[in-house]
Amino acid sequence: MPLLSYSVLLVLVITSYAFNWTSLILPKWLTVTLTDGTMRSYGLFQLCHSGTNEACQAFPGSAEKCAATGMLCPIWQTAGAGMILAGVVGALAIVAVIGTMCSIGRKRDRGWKVVSVMLVLHAVPGAVSVLIMAHLCTSLQGTRCDVAFFLATAALVMNLLLALIVSYFTKATPSSSSYAYEPLEH
């Protein structure tokens, strides 16, 4: 693959990583419209109320609060843990792309397989989180998916597409180590 392809891949992986972390931090995974017209925005770690001057509060909260919600807290915490894990693996994927770009010959050829695997591994925990939130969004009445949900979904799709593209191009393009070294004659 030419240097331009490597550069574009790196920018796209960093963009996916930024989407992942933005969705992790942003308290807008699910939004619920209450009967009085106010809205609650749920993030993976915060609950915010619109129409009030209250600051956002920790969510899902303490063990006592979680006991009253049944299975919602463990499911919510699983989604949060999945996005954190996706963030960590995403950082490793960026390191793998940079390491592969900076390596030479055979190492670069083998490195793209590692990059593809890292991109899939970055997508899997994010997919678990997105599926959990999609289930909650469709099963809780008056709830709609919000910005962070769509950012996480975009990161997931980008990672899977990039993994497929990298896998295809590493098989379709000739190996950079297949070129024989020919010294210049004086």
Report on this structure:
By secondary structure, this protein is α+β, with helices and mostly antiparallel strands. It has a domain at 3-26 and 69-172: Four Helix Bundle (Hemerythrin (Met), subunit A), CATH 1.20.120. Helices cover 66% and strands 9% of the residues. It contains five helices and five strands, in the order H-E-E-E-E-H-H-H-E-H. It has helices spanning 3-25, 63-69, 72-102, 105-139, 147-172, and strands spanning 30-33, 39-42, 46-49, 57-58, 143-145. Strands 4-3-2-1-5 form a five-stranded antiparallel sheet. Strand 1 (30-33) and strand 2 form a beta hairpin. The model is unreliable at 177-181 (pLDDT under 50).
Please sum up the structure shown.
Helices cover 66% and strands 9% of the residues. The chain has 186 residues and is α+β, with helices and mostly antiparallel strands. Helix 1 packs antiparallel against helix 5 and helix 4 packs antiparallel against helix 5.
